Structure formats: C-alpha cells, structure tokens
Sequence to fold (145 residues):
Amino acid sequence: MTRAYAWLLRMYPRGEWALFSAEMLATFKEAAREHRGRGWAVYARFALREILGLFAGAVRAWFAAWREAPALDLTKMRPPGVPRQAYAEALDEVIEAQRLVESNLARMQHAIYRHEFAKARFYSEQDRQARELLRLLRKRHGIAE
Fold:
C-alpha cells in the first residue's frame, strides 16, 4: 500500500510533489502502521479514505496551479545595475526563508493531525517568525510578494 501511495503522490504538480511528498509519505507510513494494528477492516477504510483524499488533493492542487498567474522566474531576471552575485545571494536568502515557512507550516499541520497541540503551538510561533523574516528579506531586496 505504501508503494502505491508513493506512486500516486506523483499526481500532484511537480513543485508541490517535490516540497511535500516526503513529509506526506512519512505521515502516511506512520498512520498506516497504527491502523494496521487495529484490524483489516479499519486498515481498509483508512487506506480507501487516504487514497480518495490524495486524489481530491491532487485535483485541487492542479486547479489552483491553473488559476494562478504564471510566476516569474526571479533567478533569470536581474534588475539593471545590480551585480549578479548580490542578486543571487539575495534570492538564495529569500528562497531559503520561503522553504522555512513551508516547512514550519507542514510541521504545524502534522502536529495538529497527530493531536500534539504543544508542538503545534511551537511550530505556529516558528511559522510566525519565519514569515516575518521572509517579509523583511523581500522588503530589503525589493522582491514583491
């Protein structure tokens, strides 16, 4: 079942798959282990619910990707008069901050799913700090949200 779930994760748009597939698969494996111990019928319901949720999530992700305006690839555009090295370093900072925000959000959601509310509060605070850092970096480097 885990192999099928991992294979079906590829239905998500490439960007989302690259960012979230490892976390989603790890969460699935852990939950599957718990449900498998409760009997075949419970595990079958769990698996069906997860597979249907995976399909629905992939469809929503593709619709969201099609609705959004195409994003500019900031790594290929450099304002006139800005040295390449400085621009690349600024983008690296912003991209790292964006990844931190996404990671904290995923961890917070996972903690909520697991009913670990103390961890969820911790990651919520980390998320708030990471978003503030991202906002400041974007402002400092003149990158639009």
About this structure: Residues 1-71 form one domain. The chain has a mean pLDDT of 82.
